[in-house]
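[09:14] KT: can someone run the structure on this one? pasting the chain below
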Amino acid sequence: MKLENLQKLFVHELKDLYSAENQLTEALPTMINAATDKDLRSAFTDHLAETKEHVARLETIFKSLDYAPGGHRCKGMAGLIEETKSALTDVPEADDEVRDALLIAGAQRVEHYEMAGYGIARAYAEQLGNRKAADLLTRSIEEEGRADRTLSHLAERRINFEAMSMS
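[09:31] RB: done, structure tokens below
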């Protein structure tokens, strides 16, 4: 698709988000299994359910625009997931706290990437006068922000301190 106007740029951004969310849906179970802290596992499990909701919201927007959601691969999300997966291989098996801190860092990079994408798409929706899409995208932005704050709280209150004691 040629990105010749804001409407097509909006659809392109939505396709990028749709791909990103689907990639995250596939990656989160691995992150849940790799996490050793029960609160971190719980946060990842909760976010997996939210991520599936984000996919459903995007599908609703696509239906209203009469566009198919597929046909695009988000290279940014693929890179963020691969970077975290690769770094996990550098953490010794016994260093659970370090692994959990690394998982939080990778997840927070993902959250910030998603918030940026949703913010861009929401701005396009508002400019195009698509209030329904803007409202749905706002809900996802708020949930991504809440997930990021949860991860920050876990890292700053406990997990990073526990990882520090490993050195």
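[09:33] KT: thanks! The first helix runs from residue 6 to 34.
[09:34] RB: yep, looked fine to me
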